[in-house]
């Protein structure tokens, strides 16, 4: 058997890569072990253009937002568009100093089209925001797990994607020969793309990459007679999921002993939520996942220096929804047409 490409990993990175290749007419074989701690399965899929403690504009924010919109506007995405939920993010000012800083920044060219200054408290009966806040406008969240699964099913129905719901042992891959053996079948491939999230640490060809596994815990809440029409961001996020359900989190743990939800993580989330929010709720679910992060907080996309048919896409951290559409398009163009438009900031050779 022959296939144009083999993809290891069926999270958001792997699904986006498969979509780009299949839509271009390539046949793809994807191995998806469906790990329950995958960030794509746990996270709310938040996309935000102003991030960090000091409110920096996300790297390549305008381009990434435009690419996300264009990707979802493609005809094949029509059944999945309802899984994207555009929604402003409201960041209360914690003190007068932050208020003054944003008062001067809000009119700057980088921010004037993406933020709105909130002079007075917003929903003071629910939110601790005596100094007002900033609304970040071109943001929202995506149902990351259902979207990823729905996209892979559409690709399977197209006949271009064969998905195997299992991992592929690395020893089954003869990289120099561009062949692999699976269930007694010899398969030759044109390209191998590794989209394994934090499990790239165990990949023999990419284990040198400084992937930092970062554990994040989240809670699903049921509201007690209140309703938000925006995402609240103060220490943790509070994201309306629809109806009376909300998602709150996340923790950021670079050191952890297991991938499971913990009482310490739950206490941290609820403690931080309580500093900003006064509404009543009850906890319905507690989940945990592991993000693949990098030291410079940039994703990784590129080709192995020794094997021109071996590629990597990952290291998205908390920005998978924003990063995957753009980088998967650029990497697919390199594989299919030899066009190398990938920026040096994401190159695996930077490490």
Describe the protein:
The two termini are 36 Å apart. Helix 1 runs parallel beside helix 7. The protein is 24% helix and 30% strand. Strand 16 and strand 17 form a beta hairpin. It contains 7 helices and 21 strands. By secondary structure, it is α+β, with helices and mostly antiparallel strands. Strands 1, 2, 11, 12, 13, 14, 20 and 21 form an 8-stranded mixed β-sheet that branches. An 8-stranded mixed β-sheet has the order 8-9-7-16-17-18-15-19, with helices on both faces.
List keywords for this structure.
7 helices; 21 strands; 24% helix; 30% strand; single chain; alpha+beta; eight-stranded mixed sheet; 351 residues
Write the layout of secondary structure elements.
Elements: E1 2-8, H1 12-23, E2 28-31, H2 39-42, E3 46-47, E4 50-51, E5 56-57, H3 61-72, E6 84-86, E7 89-92, H4 96-105, E8 115-118, E9 133-136, E10 140-142, H5 144-158, E11 161-164, E12 173-174, E13 179-182, E14 185-194, E15 212-223, E16 231-234, E17 236-242, E18 245-249, H6 263-274, E19 281-293, E20 300-303, E21 310-314, H7 320-337
Parallel strand pairs: 1-2, 1-14, 2-11, 7-16, 14-21
Antiparallel strand pairs: 3-10, 4-5, 6-10, 7-9, 8-9, 12-13, 13-14, 15-18, 15-19, 16-17, 17-18, 20-21
Helix pairs in contact: 1-5, 1-7, 3-7
